[in-house]
Each structure stands twice: as structure tokens, then as C-alpha cells.
Design brief:
With about 425 residues, the chain is an alpha+beta fold. The protein is built from 17 helices and 21 strands.
Length: about 425
Amino acid sequence: MARIKPFRATYFNPQIAGDISRLVSPPYDVISPEEARALRAGSLHNTIHIELGEPGDADFYRKAAELILAWQRQGVLKSADRPAIYFYQTEFSYHMAGRDRKVRRRGFFALLGVSDYEQGEVLRHEHTLSGPKQDRLQLLRATRTNISPIFVLYKDPGLGLVKGLARAKQVEPVFELTDDKGVSHKLFGVDDPKVVEKVAAELAKKPVYIADGHHRYETALNFGKELAAARDPMAASAAWVMTYFCPVEDPGLVILPYHRLVRNMPADRIAGFMERVRMNFQTELIADRFSRRNTAEVFQALDASGKSRALVMIDDSRKAWMLKLKRGLAKDFKAKLDVEILKELVLEQGLRISRQEITDKNHVAYETKEELILRRLSSEDFQFAFLLRPLAVGKVIARADAGGVMPQKSTYFYPKLPSGLVFRKMVPGRDIS
């Protein structure tokens, strides 16, 4: 089952680097060009300088490696005195199903032993793409540093591990900050051998499930194999990757759905679309015009659709329709997720969008924020929107346990883990801690 170890974190020294809230960044794959420019301008020490290169900068990987070394020499980065596990708590607000909510999520950072999925220690729920893995591999080769953590889930019905870590004696680093999105973060090290041993022993009894970071995990796995084949002195260290562990049962574990927006559909594909939809779905008009006035009510109606296999369609005249899968199809689609039903019966069969077109994003875009759906429909000339309910974490676990994967953009674990709270610098030899 899962193998974990403590590690000596490398982290920003606020006395030299400045306020930690100005140094962290979102992970590389969710940073917009505008946000990237703002982060680079905000601080010379922001994590983005070693996390994401500017467009067209082929020399970024080398410069990132040199910058990490320079920051270490200058004292911008420092390392913990002893190996530890790092407790991490975040409190945040979010909007889902037409309502505002506020929760707290707790977990911890440690090293995770990497292994092939077939070994059953680490399970996935997504396919990966070659482009992002090649990018991350080049960065890992150059820096030999885990800059962004993997995000995994583990089962702990009593939440005993995070409760024990929250009570443990704190050691450095100790950070408390609120970021520019109003999310509060608390992090501190725990090096009590008894606590660390208990965490490792509990995780050794069960697998872990990748929630976010499939590309980074597979990159770490491939890099470890590459160094082992070359008999590199860093090979033992590269067999482990910095990871955030969160219990499946944590009440603050939030999964947002990826809603679909569709544009550039030619008239011949739209012709007869509603008739094709009605072949598979019962349709109910729930709003004559999707507007700011009724956005919350539309999402609340979807949330209240109960056990029905349901989604909402905003059509090209901005009417909002509740689509419920016909009872006669329920058996055939029992094992399918709502996002898979949408893909097969609505996008592919109804709008005749090919799987390759979906992969190439020729017609389909994605949005997780309910409050942005109406704005994007108006400002970006989309013809349709398809609204989905959030996926229960149990569905993610069940699919992973069965050895299956979900379509791209099925889950958005919110909020994303910030890059820059802690880093993990690899060291040569067997004593990876």
C-alpha cells in the first residue's frame, strides 16, 4: 500500500523574501496569461518565476534551476533542520448550486513513494496528455525540485490523522496567510517521531487516490525510472515525490463540476438538435430566459433534481431546459457519470461533435464558476451551455478502484493547492530525508 516519509522542506524565508502571501502562486496549469503577468510583477521572489515560463522562453528550465540555487545562496530559501510532516489547513468560501458556502479543509504534506498504477499503491481517475508531462519533465530534470505538490486522497472515516497532526507541537516552517482570493492558509511542521510513525503506519494499510496532479505524478514516476536506469546518485531520492494528503471524509473536500459551453456550431448540426435530445431525455422548460435574475434558481433546480440523471441545457435562444434521462435508458447508463451521458448523448449524438473535436477543443470550452456562465454566454458568443451537478467523491474513488478513468474535465478539486508554501529539493544518496 502507500509508502510515505517525512522530508526536510525548503521554504521561503519571509525576513528576506517578503510576505509569503505575495510569494505563492496557483499551480502552473490554471494560471491565466493576465494572472501570470501580475504575479511576475508582484514580486521578484514569487514562485511563478520557477514554476511557469513566459511564452516562447525555451531557456526557462535552465533559468529556473539557476534561480533556485541563487535563492538558496541569498537566503531567500531556507531548509528545515529536521525531517517533518507538514500539517496544512485552508478555510475558504465558494459558490455552488446557487448558494454561497464556507468550509475548512485539512491535510498534510509528506513524501509519497511513486510506483506504477498496476501495483495498486497509487490509483488514478484521469488519462494524461504528453505535452504537459514533457514540460514538467524538463523542469524536473533541470531543477531536481518538487515545486508543486501532488494532491491525493486517502480513507480515514474518523479523521484521526489530521486531528492528531492539528494537536501536535509545531515546528518550522509556520505560516499563516490570506491570499488575494480571500483564502486563508495555515501550515506548520510536525517532527514528533511518534506522530510521524503513526501517519506512515496508517497509510501503509491502504492505497491513495490522485485527486489532482496526474501529470506531475507520472512525470515523477518517469523521472525516477530515468535516473535509476542511469544509476544517477539522485535515483533513490527521485523515487519519492512531495504530496498533499487529504482524507476522503473531510467535510471541506470540495469538487466543483466543469460546465460545458459550446460555440461555432454550423447551422446544419443545430437543425433537428432538440428532436435528437428528446429521443433520450425528458425535457422541461425551467426558465424562458436565462438571466442574472434567475441564475441561482436554475442551479438550485438542478441541485434539487434528486436521483434523476439530470443536467440543464441553456439553448441558443437562452431558454433553460432541465434534461432528465428517460427511464428506459437508466439501466444502460447506470454505470455512466453525468458528464459521460452529456458527452455521448448530447454533444456527440445530439450536436454531432466528434470525439476528436472535443479533444481538440474546437467547439467545447469549460467553466467551473457558476457566476461566469451567463457572462461568458454573452461576451464570448457561445451558442449553448450545459450545466452539471458536482461529482461525489465516492464516484471518483469507485472509478479508481475499478481501474477506470473519467473523461477530461470531470472534476475540479477546489481550491487548488498553492505552489510555494513548501518545496522539496532532492538530495543524493539513500537518506532521502
